[in-house]
Design brief:
Elements: E1 3-21, E2 27-47, E3 51-55, H1 67-78, E4 85-91, H2 102-117, H3 124-132, H4 138-143, E5 146-151, E6 155-158, E7 166-171, H5 178-188, H6 196-204, H7 220-226, H8 229-238, E8 244-247, E9 254-258, H9 261-269, E10 277-284
Parallel strand pairs: 3-4
Antiparallel strand pairs: 1-2, 2-4, 2-5, 2-10, 5-6, 7-9, 7-10, 8-9
Bound molecules: adenosine-5'-triphosphate.
The site of adenosine-5'-triphosphate has 21 residues, from α1 and α2.
């Protein structure tokens, strides 16, 4: 095999609870993660040596700052017997710095793809541990589906898939720095009450999610302060027939879940704000 294409699906957060700031500087989190069909498409091609990253998005770094590059570097460190290198082309479809873990998704997809390309059997534990350092969401992106993530996001518990649901995903053109949102969160408030236990129990029992439970995102206030457009977008979505509307991760992406694909498509087709990225996607199970 000389080349291979892999998909790197984005994630949304159905719930995000910040439990506190740890001594190592990371926040202790409880999150419900869900993969969606919005995905980057990555081409991996063997080459004589070294790693090259190219992308359809010119603003993306192509050097070691790119998480896809870092994942490839780790792959070759884990498999020193390989004498070849790889060219990585990222067709970027996931908005950058938008709260959908685009960079982590690319890193996880490159790691999975390289094992396929070089026809090697992956040692999943080893891979997970070595990738956690490049981004807290990377271990989740290796798994996908509906997952309860804790610690700083790297402790994973697989949950029953919530089923195929249609969503409208809206991202304003404003880019948000995740560390800036957490910093403001720490400055803004004491920790709020969050009945995460009931949310988790609801998802474990395989019934339809009860959106009236405490599905929420603790980063909301901080993200809205940094990017007031989030509120405007939420106001528009709240006036549609959405079953549920939420901020994803540290934002600024907001999504709504609908009972039918038609409803979601109608909302997207008549979206009133000109410069937003708006798309209809569905939830997907593990890959
Ligand atoms: P998270 O929710 O995990 O914090 P995000 O979705 O908000 O992530 P990303 O799109 O992953 O944000 O990008 C965050 C930063 O990572 C950007 O500043 C970007 O330059 C850098 N980055 C490095 N590699 C990539 C990549 N392959 N795709 C996107 N961003 C990348």
């Amino acid at each position: 095999m000389r080349e291979i294409y892999v998909k790197a699906p984005a994630k949304i957060n159905l719930a995000l609870h910040v439990r506190g700031l740890r001594k190592d500087g990371f926040h202790e989190l409880q999150m419900i993660m869900q993969s969606i069909s919005l995905a980057d498409r990555i081409k991996l091609k063997k080459k004589s040596g070294g790693i090259i990253v190219k992308s359809s998005q010119t603003e993306l770094p192509t050097n070691k700052e790119n998480l896809a590059y870092q994942a490839a570097e780790i792959f070759f460190e884990l498999n020193p017997e390989l004498k070849q290198g790889v060219e990585i082309y990222i067709e970027k479809n996931i908005p950058i710095a938008a709260g959908m873990a685009g960079g982590s998704a690319d890193a996880a997809a490159v790691m999975r793809g390289l094992y396929l390309l070089f026809e090697l059997k992956p040692d999943l534990n080893k891979i997970r541990n070595s990738l956690a350092d490049i981004g807290s969401d990377v271990p989740y992106c290796l798994e996908g589906g509906t997952v309860y993530a804790s610690g700083r996001g790297e402790i994973l518990e697989k949950l029953p898939f919530i089923g195929e649901k249609y969503l409208v995903v809206v991202t304003p053109s404003f880019k948000i720095s995740t560390p800036a949102v957490y910093k403001l969160y720490d400055e803004l408030e004491g920790y709020e009450k969050f009945d995460f236990k009931s949310v988790l129990a609801n998802l474990k029992n395989k019934e339809e999610p009860d959106w009236n439970l405490d599905y929420k995102n603790d980063l909301k206030k901080a993200a809205e302060k940094i990017c007031p457009e989030i509120k405007e977008i939420k106001n528009i979505l709240n006036n549609t027939k959405a079953a549920f509307t939420m901020l994803s991760g540290s934002g600024p992406t907001v999504f709504s879940i609908y009972n039918s694909r038609e409803q979601a498509e109608k909302v997207a087709a008549s979206w009133p704000r000109k410069n937003d990225f708006v798309t209809v996607v569905k939830t997907i199970d593990s890959y």
